[in-house]
Amino acid sequence: MGRLIGRFIPRSLAGWFAACWGLFLLAAIVAGSTLVSLYRDGTTERLRRAEAALARGCDAITERYRFATTGSARIDWQDPETVQLLTAATLVALRDLPGVEGGLWRSGAGPLAYAYPTYEGAGPKTDVPAAELSRIGETAEAAILRGVPVIRRYDARTQALLLRACPLPGTSLNLAAWVMDRVILFGGPAYLRAAAALAVLTAVLLGSAAWLGWLLWGWSRRLRQIEAALAGSGAEDLPRLAATGQRDLDRVVQAVNGAAGRLAEARRAAAAAAARANEAERLAGLGRVAAGVAHEVRNPIAAMRLKAENALAARDPDRMRRALDVVLAQVGRLDTLTRDLLDAARGGAPLRRHATDLGALVGDRVAFYREQAGAAGVSLEAGGDAIPPAALDGERLERALDNLILNALQATPPGGRVEVAACRGEDGLVLSVADTGRGVPEALRAHLFEPFASGRPEGTGLGLAQVREAAEAHGGRVRALHRDDGTTIEIILPEGPAAAWPAS
């Protein structure tokens, strides 16, 4: 039921206005119909009352005629006194019936007496209305002929004429009493009141339509202004909206402006917090780098010092020679560390882009390390798709692949397999190195590509950091896929033709 009702609920401001005006129009139609019905009922009632008055008038004239002619053996219709007597009797019969006029009619001779006691003119009305004489005669003749009362109605544009004729019983002179009344259909007080009410209702209806339309136009215009202001703002900023002059909308405007202020303040606070977090992260990273460098430098220095001190204390030439061998090995280790640090520092250097065939690059590096892989009992294979040359820094990608291949060979036990591939993926060009080794420890995965993050005691932890620097320098990224049977490292590079990049 709720869903059914919800379908008919307007979901826009214009819909609400249209629904309200539609309900008002329905109420106006009902009220107008009621007024028309009441007026018609009133007209019907006036016609009914007029017919009842005519019946009483006809009976009253009959009674007065009988009273006036009681005891007369013979009536002289030409005698003025007789006519005057009958006129007086008619006058008395109709004096209590407003708007009713009537008289006596003799078949073949016409009207004998006439009276209109409630006439509102300047003086008494004594003449039968000439315009209705023929209708009076037809009605009276019909009553005389049929011997029963006859009532007839004649409708004009603004009024209805009611005529009633009653045959006078007990006479052989073919006499009938007739009465007449007029009922105003249009133009009378009731009609004017109904017309005035309908006019007022129509004016209110049209006025309400104009008023609601003006309100809707004003609301729509102000809403369009707000919408345009919001649409013209940036993706991260809310504009300051101007007041519309409409109280309800201005509350919304004030709420939006307040939200914009709070959002700007929150963004400033977030930016400051992010800056502090970045600074803290930078300092933490610097601390990790410093700690790693100190650790990597301290171990060789400690080993060289111990060997030199022992050799000097023993003064044995053979022992001194072995100590010098250890010192040279540790110097080599320090040299490797220094080179890796310099490579990591050069990660922000400009790229040297040129047309690079990634498939050829993969094949070259696999061929270079195949003998080393065979000595470790590991199968090293090249795979992937044929990819057109792209504008890339081949030397930096070569060093990144070297790091990944060496890590994979060191992590894969004898009998394992390492596959190096270049292909086109959903996000761009992909260089991948997949091994079937021991996998990356869970605790190391979150910091895998950070400097000095290494799972091997002899590792410096700078190789994967250089891989990440190489990928990000190209506008790409690096990711690790941890499988049940090993690890896959992917370098994802944005794809673009070599001609789109100037050589540097």
Summarize the structure.
This protein is an alpha+beta fold and 504 residues long. Helices cover 55% and strands 16% of the residues.
Q: What does the secondary structure layout of this molecule look like, with pairings?
A:
Elements: H1 2-7, H2 13-69, H3 80-94, E1 101-106, E2 110-115, H4 133-146, E3 150-155, E4 159-167, E5 175-184, H5 189-231, H6 247-314, H7 317-345, E6 354-356, H8 358-375, E7 379-384, E8 390-392, H9 394-411, E9 417-424, E10 429-435, H10 463-473, E11 477-483, E12 486-493
Alpha-carbon distance between the two ends: 72 Å
The total of beta strands comes to 12
Mean pLDDT across all amino acids: 77
Strand fraction equals: 15-25%
Count of the domains: 3
CATH fold-level topology of the largest domain: Beta-Lactamase
> What's the CATH class label of the largest domain?
Alpha Beta
Low-pLDDT stretches are 497-504
Radius of gyration: 59 Å
**What is the second-level CATH architecture of the largest domain?**
2-Layer Sandwich
The main sheet comes to: 5 strands, antiparallel
For the biggest β-sheet, the strand order reads 2-1-5-4-3
SSE series:
HHHEEHEEEHHHEHEEHEEHEE
Give the overall form: rod-shaped
- Percent helix, as a range, is 55-70%
How many helices? The count is 10
The structural class is alpha+beta
Enzyme class: transferase
GO molecular function: kinase activity
Keywords: Cell membrane, Kinase, Membrane, Phosphoprotein, Transferase, Transmembrane, Transmembrane helix, Two-component regulatory system, Virulence
InterPro entries: 2C_sensor_his_kinase (IPR050980), HATPase_C_sf (IPR036890), HATPase_dom (IPR003594), His_kinase_dom (IPR005467), HisK_dim/P_dom (IPR003661), HisK_dim/P_sf (IPR036097), Sig_transdc_His_kin-like_C (IPR004358)
